[in-house]
Amino acid sequence: MPVARDLRVLLRLRYFRRLLYVRLLSQGADGVYQVALAAYVVFSPERQTSAAAIASAMAVLLLPYSLVGPFAGVLLDRWRRRQVFVHGNLLRALLAAATAGLMVGHVPDWLFYVSALCVTAVNRFILAGLSAALPRVVDTERLVLANSLSPTAGTLAATAGGGLAFGVRLLSSDSDAAVVLLGAFLYLCAGLSSLSMAPGLLGPDRQPTRPHLGAALADTARDLLAAARHLAVPRRREAVWALAAMTLMRFCYGALLVLLLMLCRYGLTGDPEEGLRLLGLALALSGAGFFTAAVVTPWAAGRLGPGRWIVVCSGAAMVLEPALGLPFATGPLLTAAFILGLITQGAKIATDTIVQACVDDGFRGRIFSVYDVLFNVAFVGAAGVAALMLPPDGRSPVLVVLIGLIYGAVAAALARFEWRRAAEQNEGRCFT
């Protein structure tokens, strides 16, 4: 297979191989830790889980990506990246071990969430550093290939880590703390693996003149504002519409995930362990939908155009989400998990394509930082709204219908925009 052949070529590069080990161990540990956190918050038999607790856990997992992410590069350009991997992973190992201790000690929830928040906040620096370090271990001709395969391998490692956590959690009772300790051990291995590279190998190069940290952070904030102004130009409205549509679809996906968690915990089964198995199956099917979208979307978006493909995705969700969700039965919900995974990821791929095509090269990094913030804040906001609307068993027809209406509004608004844009282009005028 071409992918296997390309990976073999890259693995001949010694320092790429070592950096990849750090990525696999680090992201594998992320998968273990995140599943352990979700299982503890939602499926511990001794805890009376609420939608508000789930929303809090999602905020802990995702908000650091949004709040820290745009500014992580400023610090990564000042610190040696190899040292970030060593100290960051060792710090996460200690914090994860502390989280396990808090689980056993039955401390107040806020203290547990503070510990978990610190672990996930450090993660943003690790992931950004892994991407920034790639050009130091791969030659220019292979850089595109490395950028394609390395993050994919990391995602697979995180998925494998999540599966390992599910397995450990299901095989032994009262094992939430043990699963977190497994994640801490993998973080420790990632930190120790980083020691196989020289401190200066991964950069950054020392610069004789460097702005003060406060000035650099202020410049980053100004860059984000400049990115927003860049999008305000009329000829980039397609990107704005796509970003708005994707933000609303991400909101819908987040609300449905909270609903699914509550149904698995209380609405479909009274046994936490059986509910955890059901959740694992639903997430696996949603992941299969994501991979299916990666196969289907290039063909569909090529035939219809990326904007129209988003219309198709949101329109399909408008019809299928209430039809499969309102029965609140296991079979339809598992089917919905696969379809919504396909629809959400298909729309995201199309949105990425539109943004890349419409935005000037010098602004793409900053625009995607704004995109990242919108993406995660919408997800957390959806969890908060769902927490206010969901009953304890998760059976809320009102929420299901509301989400269907949001999908319908996205489809209608974007279809109208695409029709107007096509009409203007057919008349030979630049669409504004």
Written account of the structure:
The protein has 432 residues and is an all-alpha fold. It folds into 2 domains: 1-210, MFS general substrate transporter like domains (Growth Hormone, Chain: A); 224-432, MFS general substrate transporter like domains (Growth Hormone, Chain: A), CATH 1.20.1250.20. The chain contains 15 helices and no strands. Helix 9 packs across helix 14. The radius of gyration is 22 Å and the shape is globular.
Blueprint of the fold:
Layout: H1 2-11, H2 14-43, H3 51-67, H4 69-76, H5 81-105, H6 109-133, H7 143-171, H8 176-194, H9 213-231, H10 237-267, H11 272-304, H12 306-325, H13 330-358, H14 364-389, H15 397-426
| Most strands sheet | none
Give the beta-strand count. 0
- Tell me, what's the shape? globular
Helical fraction equals over 70%
pLDDT < 50 stretches: none
N/C terminus separation: 45 Å
Q: What is the beta-strand fraction?
A: under 5%
Estimate the mean pLDDT confidence: 82
* Tally of separate helices: 15
Level-2 CATH architecture of the largest domain? Up-down Bundle
